[in-house]
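hey so i finally got around to running both of the ones u sent me last week. sorry it took forever, my laptop kept dying halfway thru and i had to restart like 3 times lol. anyway pasting them below in the order u listed, first the sequence line then the C-alpha cell line for each. didnt double check formatting much so if smth looks off just lmk and ill redo it

first one:
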Amino acid sequence: MALSTCRGIDVSEHQAPQNWATHRRDGVAFGFAKASEGEHSHDSRFPQHISGIIAAQLLPGSYHFAWPNQDPRTEAANYVSAARPYAAAHPAYTHWLDLEAYPDRRNYAGRSAAQIRAWVATWTAAVQAAFPKQRIGIYTSGDDLAAGHVPGGLPLWYPAYPWGAADYPRAEAAPQPEPSGWKPLLWQFTSTPLDRSIAYRSEAALRAWAAGTTASTDEEDPVPDEVNLGIAQAYELAPGAWDSIEFTTEWNDTANEHATGGSVFVRGACRFTGSVSLRIAGLPVGETVQVRMSEYEGDQHIADHPIDEAVGTRGDTFHVTPLTKHLAAGRGMRVRLFNNGGTPVTVQSAVLTALSWPAG
C-alpha cells in the first residue's frame, strides 16, 4: 500500500523571492526557510521568505545551520531570536536543525562524534524550551546518522539525491529511504531547480502532527476518519451576509457525519485538522471574502471562530484556510463565507479535506 505524502520546498538567501501562492496552487503543502547560522548570522532573505510562506497558508517552518564547534546555547539563542516573531503567531510552526559538514569540515573541526551528538541534544533542548508546544526536528545526512551524531527520537528530514533533477511523482513512487535504520518524516530528494521534499504524511496529517494533535513520528497514530468534500457546481455569493458552504459532492466520509448536500463537515466530540481550498471569480483586486468556522447544534448557531480572509487578485482568487479545532459533543462544524464587497462573486470551487479523531 502506497504511503500518503505531501509536497514541500525549502529556501535560503541563495534562492530568489518565490511566488508562494503559485507554489500552493501547484500542490505544495509546506515551506521552510533558513533563519540563521552559527552564533550570530541571520539569513538575509528569511523575513521575506517566511512571510510569503505564511501568507500563502503553507505549513511554515525554519531551520538553523549548525556549527557544532561553537557554543550550542548561543546558537540556539541566535535561532530563537530570528524565528520567534513568526513562530509565536503560528502554533503549527516547525523548527529544524540543519546538521551537515561544510566540504572542508570547518564547522565540525575538533569535535568527536560524541561531542557532536551532545551538542545536538543541547541545541534541540534549548529550542524546545523556547517553543515548548512546537515540533523540533533535524535535517541531516546518512553519513551523520551512521556516525552517531544524532540522538534518537528526533523527527528526521533526510537529504539524498539519487537522480539529480527530479519531480515529485518520481519521489512519491520510490520506496521510503531508511538510512541507518531511520525512517524519515521528510525526504529532500532534489536540489534542482529548488530544494524539494516530500513528507510521509498527508497534508492534513502533517498539519495535525505539527499542531501537536497527533503522536510523535516514531509512534503509531490512531487511525483517523477522513472527509473530502466539494461543490458540484459554482454558485453566487451575495454581499453582506454570512453563508454556509453546502457541500454537494462527497468523495470520502468514513465517519458518516456529512449529510448529503449538507454544510456540516464534522461532528463532535472530536478533534480535527484539515483545510478548505477556494476559487472565487469576480472578486475585485483588494476586496475580501471572509472565511470562518462556525459551530451549530442542529440548525442553531452556537459559536464562531476566528476570521480568515481571501483577498481579491487579478483573475480568479485562490485561497486556502486551515481547519483545526476540538469540537464538543452534540455540535457540528460548518465553513461560512462573507462577501465584503458591493457586488456578488462566484464561488467556482470549494474543496475541503480533513482528518478527525473521536474525543472522549
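and the second one:
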Amino acid sequence: MKLLRTALVAVVAGFIFQQIGMFLPWLLGPMIALLVLRQVTEMEFYWPRIFRTVGLILLGVMIGASFTRESVLLMWVDLPYMLFMTVSVIIAALLFGLLFSKMANESLQSSLLGSMPGGLSQMVLISEEVNNANVTVVSVMQTFRIFLVVTIVPLLTTFLAGREASKIAETPAVSFSPIAFTAAIILGIIFYLLMKRFSFPAKELLAPVLVMAIVQSFTGATLIEMPPLLTILAQLLVGAHLGLQMEKLRENMSMRLAFAIVVNNVLLIAFTVLIAYILSALLPEYLFLDFFLSAAPGGMAEMGITALAAGADVALITSFHLFRLFFILLLAAPAVAYVLKKLDAKTGN
C-alpha cells in the first residue's frame, strides 16, 4: 500500500509539473511533492532502494552515451581548468562554512564538513570520526543542499542558452556491436564491484558512466540510445528517492539553522556563477551553461539530468564532476578530516 501510494504521488506530481511547463518535471515533481507530504502529513511512504539503483543505472547509461572519443581526449586538455574550478569551489565552500559556523552557532567541525560538496554519505561517515562534529547537522546540511541545488540550478538554466542556440555536434550514429556490448557489461560489473569494495558514492551511476566512456572512446560510436520513456522513468525513480531522503526534516531544523543553510548555499551557487563566467571568458568555444552546471555543487546524477534537458555539453559536465568527486574523496576530504581531528586533539576533546 505504501509503495503504491508513493508511486501514485510521484506519477501525478510529475504529470502536473509537466502540464504547467516546469523544467525537469519528472524529477522535481516527485521530489517536491513527496518532500512536502513527508513533512506536513502523517502519511507513510516507501520507495525500495532497488528503484533508486535502477534509476541511477539508467542515468549512468544516458550520461555515458554522451561520451565520444573526441570528448574523452578533450578531458586531458581541460585538466587545468578542472583543477582550477574544483579547488576554487572547495575553498569557497570551506570559507562559507566558516560563515555558517557563526550564523548558526554550530561547531567549526560540523560547519566545514556540512559545507564540503563531497556527497552526503562520505561527509556523514567522516563526521562520525570527528569528535566535535554533529552528525545530524552535517546530514541536514548536506541533504538540504542537494534539495536547494537541484531546485535552484535547473530553474536558473531555463534562462541560459543551451545547445539549440549554438553549434551542436552531431550525435554519432548508434552502432550496436555484440562484442563491445558484452565487454561493456563485463567491465561494468568489475567497476561496480571495485567501487563497492572501496565504498565509492553512487557507484550505480559511476560504473556505467565510466564504462560507456571507455568503450565508446575505443569503438568510436554511440552504443546505446535511450528512448524518452526510459529518460522519464529514470527521473521519476531518482526524484522520488530524493524527496523521501529527507526524513522528517522539520524535527531537526530550527529557523536559525535553516536560514544559515540557505545563505550558505545561495552564496556557493553565486560563486559557481562567477567561476563559470571566468572560464567561459577564457574558453569562448564553450557555453556559460556548460561551466555553470560543471561548477554547481550538486550531485553528478542531478546535474547530468539537468544537462541533458538543457542542451549542455553532458560529457564535459560529467568530466568536471568526476574530477571533483575523485579530488574530494582522495585529497580534500581526508585533508579536512585530518585537520579537524588535530583541532579536536588540541582542544582536548
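quick thing i noticed on the 2nd:
Residues 165-172 have pLDDT under 50 and may be disordered.
anyway thats it, ttyl
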